[in-house]
Amino acid sequence: MSTGTETATGAGTEPVRTEPPAARVRALRKEFGRVTAVDGIDLDVPAGSVFGMLGPNGSGKTTLIRMLLGLSRPTSGTVELLGRPVPAGLSAALPDVGALVEGPGFHPFLSGRENLRRAADLEPRLSAHETGPAVDAALDRVGLADAAGRRYRGYSLGMKQRLGLAAALLVPRRLVVLDEPTNGLDPAGTREIRAIVAELRAAGATVLLSSHLLSEVEAVCTHVAVLKQGTLLAAGELGQLLDAVAGGWEIATTDVDRALRVLRETGATARADGAGVLVEDGPEGPVLFAALVRADVRVHGLRRQRPDLETLFTRITET
Hints:
6-stranded mixed beta sheet; Alpha-Beta Plaits; Rossmann fold; nucleotide-binding; 2 domains; ABC_transporter-like_CS; transport; 4-stranded antiparallel beta sheet; about 35% helix; alpha/beta; single chain; P-loop_NTPase; ABC-2 type transport system ATP-binding protein
């Protein structure tokens, strides 16, 4: 039985198989009294993506994640998790989902290993003889092997985050949901989380994470969604979103003066910049390049000036 959607591509060709989204919401709304935390959101989380959910405090990120996982009921709208409706299909979907939401909750007087063993005992896909090795592997993966015997109450915030992540990774998952996973971590710990996210994606898992660290999201995410005051402002593939607000053109040339003269004749606004010229406004790149070539200006490179995620986020949230 097919688990994806088949699209015909023409006579004599194989059909293209597309996997359904790892998570999907439609017209999703959540109200707390007179406060609307999530306001009519439509969103797909593509399977196999690293999906970053961005937004200021109070934008609805955690509320949305909680509804995806069945931890909170929506006021209206629909939710699907791994192709199954929420909440009806949660029992079938959740064994394939690992989650760290709003900080981990463990027993303070038990050690990290003891807490993780209790979590492992609840995993339906771990047999009794597999529990110990799975716990040790998860502790090692998040860098807690040496601190596994210490009581949880003595853990730092970053260590608590690591233990929560270990619980989410006790068995292979199709979807891993991480709410502010680098909270309390030092730069080395943040790099380790980045490596784990990359490993998960390479293994075929989908990773959904929320974060206020835009540089980290830009480093690991393939897709992003930007929320503000419960509404979805933008969502899509990260590169396409950045291209949509791209700036001018960077042109590498040793003949700066002639290049400026030719470019300005095309109607471009240009200035000398570093090892070449920066075109801030005017015709598209192919037109600029053709004009320079006709004028025998040596061009060593032409590149679209792409903004970083912080610039994109600022433009979207401040409009």
